[in-house]
Design brief:
globular, single chain, Ribonuclease iii, N-terminal Endonuclease Domain, Chain A
């Protein structure tokens, strides 16, 4: 799958100094939005389904447990810089608690979202597409199987 065709392009980008000064929770906030749009666009383009089933499928991808799994698929290929962003965003104290997942998955997911936000805001679109492709190549198959099992029950 060509991940780049489902990712938004930042109209303006921040330099590395600005990115490194940005609050890690804000990087995660932006990354969550980018990841959500990516998943929704990919599902809409690759499926002939109506909005309701698409929403349920998207929700299976955009949650702490699935995001933590996606991060595990890309962790070994992160650059030192991306790994530092991941750790910085993962370790932020959150005012809310994890819903429907463990606190560990929630923190890992926040780190994943932070890396996505960092790459998006920095204009590193090719790298973002590469990581999203790696993150969801295997994760997508697992999520689709889970959804199919739920729908057949």
């Amino acid at each position: 799958m060509d991940a780049a065709r489902f990712l938004p392009i930042a109209p303006t980008t921040l330099d590395k100094r600005e990115l490194n000064m940005m609050n890690p929770a804000v990087l995660s906030f932006v990354g969550d939005s980018v990841q959500t749009l990516y998943v929704r666009a990919a599902l809409a383009a690759l499926s002939g389904e109506k909005a309701g089933p698409l929403h349920r499928k998207a929700s299976a991808f955009v949650n702490a447990t699935s995001q933590a799994q996606a991060l595990k698929h890309i962790l070994s290929v992160l650059t030192e810089e991306e790994l530092a962003v991941y750790k910085r965003c993962r370790n932020v104290k959150k005012p809310t608690s994890a819903k429907n997942s463990t606190i560990i998955d929630y923190r890992i997911a926040s780190g994943f979202e932070g890396v996505v936000g960092y790459l998006y805001l920095g204009g590193f679109h090719e790298r973002l597409a590469e990581l999203m492709e790696l993150a969801y190549a295997e994760n997508g198959a697992q999520t689709s199987e889970t959804e199919t099992q739920k729908e057949t029950k």
